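Moderator note: this is an archived Q&A kept for reference. The question asked for a predicted structure of one protein chain; the sequence and the answer are reproduced below.
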Amino acid sequence: MKVLITGAYGFIGSNFVKYILEKYTDYNIIILDKLTYAANLDNLKDIQDNPRYKFVRGDICDSELVNELISNDVEFVINFAAETHVDRAIKDSSNFVQTNVCGTHVLLEAARKFDVSKFLQISTDEVYGSRESGSFKELDLLEPNNPYSASKAGADMITRSYNKTYGLFTLITRSSNNFGPHQHPEKFIPSIIINGLNDKEVRIYGDGLNIRDWLFVLDNCSAIDLVLHKGKKGETYNVGAGNEMTNIEIAKIILKELGRSNDLITFVEDRLGHDRRYSLNIKKMSGLGWTPRESFSSALKKTILWYKENSKR
């Protein structure tokens, strides 16, 4: 079985590659990654000699390269490749539209052309926008509020269209905020850990009361695996852990774990278009038999330990 996984040197993708290679001994993985700033070759250095793993450096927007790879008997395409950082998208959204929308289209067109068995698009809860109460279901209206989430919503829509128009076996997962080892230091939880370890200020947007649901990355990997193999054609699946907390709560929990004072916390001007709350209804995933295995507390301890052992101070 040949599987093309894009963006696999990033945080979630690299964790998924290791997960899938360990679980399925008959799977051969082809990785296509552009190696942008968010990629890290160290994320997969422990499997670089695995004969079932092949790395190709390239851009998902390169249709000639994508066609060449997918035409070589690829059965599954899993698209993790994306520009993901909201602050960067606010400053300049052009790369986000190009990679997240146009790149996904290139992959879908190749998947259609060469009769790929399944195409799985990795998305985000941010495409729904914000809500004060209740939880988003998969068929709820998409109302993205920043250029990043809008580009991901566009990718979801083009993916859906390839199922409805061409009959391609597409799947979409929309997960809540992931965290865990190997995450880029610009992301929220790693930035707090690293700054706390170095006794530097921990910057919190606005009043710190924005709410996110935190999902351990390996739990997301198990959900993606289940959707890939058991999900229904053309369907979308929300993946969340029920760990809804405000940003200020997260910061205080981490600083307490590090033995640091809350005096490190500094409130800064709020981000433009900052969504107040994300929340996912995961009944559909539960119906597939999935539930998160790791508690937030245990996952956070593992994450902190990894950054203690691997961060340069």
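Archived answer notes: The chain has ten helices and twelve strands.
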